[in-house]
Amino acid sequence: MSSTASGKNGTWRNWGGNVVARPAREVTPASVDELAAAVRAAAEDGLRVKAVGTGHSFTSIAATDGVLIRPRLLAGIREIDRAAGTVTVEAGTPLKRLNLALAREGLSLTNMGDIMEQTVSGATSTGTHGTGRDSGSIAAQIKALELVTADGSVLTCSEKENPDVFAAARIGLGALGIVTAITFAVEPVFLLHAREEPMPLARVLAEFDELWAENEHFEFYWFPHTGNTNIKRNNRSAGPERPVSRVKGWFEDEFLSNGVFQAANWVGRAAPATIPAIARISSKALSARSYTDIPYKVFTSPRRVRFVEMEYAVPRDAAVDVLRELKAMVDRSPLRISFPVEVRTAPADDITLSTASGRDTAYVAVHMFRGTPYQRYFTAAERIFTAHEGRPHWGKVHTRDADYLSGVYPRFAEFTALRDRLDPERRFQNDYLRRVLGA
After folding, report:
1. Which of 172, 374, 377, 384 has a C-alpha 20 to 30 A away from that of 189?
2. Contact assessment for residue 261 and residue 340, using Cβ atoms and an 8 Å cutoff
3. pLDDT of residue 7
4. Which distant-in-sequence residues (6+ apart) come within 8 Å of 291 by Cβ?
5. H-only helix segments in 170-291
6. CA 128, CA 97: separation in Å to the nearest integer?
7. Is residue 249 predicted with pLDDT exceeding 70?
8. Quick check: helix, strand or coil at residue 11?
C-alpha cells in the first residue's frame, strides 16, 4: 500500500481514509510560473485552490471542490549555502528525499518529526513537529519562504524581507498562499544516541520534569489499560556510530511495531474485549535498546499501520495533569484503546499560529486504528485537552472553531488580518479554514 493519499476517478482521499474530496480539476505544475498561472486561471473560473502533499493530515485542511494543485514536480534541492548554514528546497520535496540528500552532503536538520513521508510544505504548513527541549518544530527551522499569493504573484519572505508574512506563513495552513520553496537552517551531520526502555507510568509522571530537563529529546508512549510506558531519550553523541542491526531493526521496527501491531489491531477491532490483554502484552513486547546513528535514522520510523489521530498542545507544566486525567477517564469508561498515547515536548517559538507559539509545550496524541469508531474516545480526550487551554494540531482530528482558537492564540487576529490582505477573495479557502479561521 502506498504511503501517500490516493486519487481515483477524480476523487481524492487522505492517508487516514477519513477525508474525501472531489476537485473540479487537478493541476501538476512543473514550475513556479506554471503554478502561478494555475492560480490566475482558477480566479478567472471562480474556483478555489488548494495544494495537497501526501495527504497525511487527518483534517480536511487540503480538501477542495475547486482546483487541486499537486506539487510533486516542484521537488529537489535548489541551493545549499554552507556559509549561511541553509538549504533551499522546492515545496513538493518529500522529507525523506530531503533527509537523504542532506545526509549525502554531510548535513542535517536539527530536529524532525517521526515520519518522513510528507512533503516539506505540507509538513511545515500544518506544524509537524518532533520532540525537543531546546529545538522546535520543522517550521521553527525555516529561514525563508517563497509563496504564490492569490493574485498569482510570487512573494518571498524572511526575518528581513516581509517579516510580518514570515511570522505567519511558516505555519500558514495553506491560507496565505501556496508555498513553492522553503529555506531551512541546517547543520553539519551529527550523531544521536538513542535509549529506549520500558518505565512505569507512575514513575514517568513523577519524574517528568527531570526527564525533560536532562535530555535533548524526550518522549514516551503510554499503553492505555496498563500502567506501562516505553520512553525514548535521544541525545547528541561523540560516537562511535552503532546503528541497530538490520535483523534486530527489521524484527523490532517492522515485525513487532508494524506487523504484529497490525494483527493485534485487527483482533482488537473484531473483539474489543481482548484489547486490555493485548495492551499488556504489547507494552512488554518492546525490550530496552540503545543505538547511535545519524539524526533522521533515529528520529523517524516506518508507520505502516493506518490510524486516525487527535493531538493537542498543552502548556508543558500541564502535561502530567492531562495524562493523569486521561488515564482516569479511560479506566472508568467502557472504551477499549489499542493504540498507545504519545507524549512529546517543544520549546516556545515565535510563529503566529504555531501550536508552541509563545509557550513551552507538551503534545499529547491519541490514536485509533483506522476503521474503528474513534468519536467517543476523541471527544472525551478533547474535553480534557481544552480544559487546559489546549491547541489542536492543525493536521489532526479536532472539533474546534475560530471562536475557541482565537482565545488560545494571542496573535490570532494578526494572522486573520494578514490573510485579509493577502487573500481578500478567499481564493485559498475551504470548509476547514472557514471553521478554524472564521469567514
Report:
1. 172
2. no
3. 53
4. 193, 194, 242, 243, 244, 298
5. 201-206, 208-214, 246-249, 261-270, 275-285
6. 17
7. no
8. strand
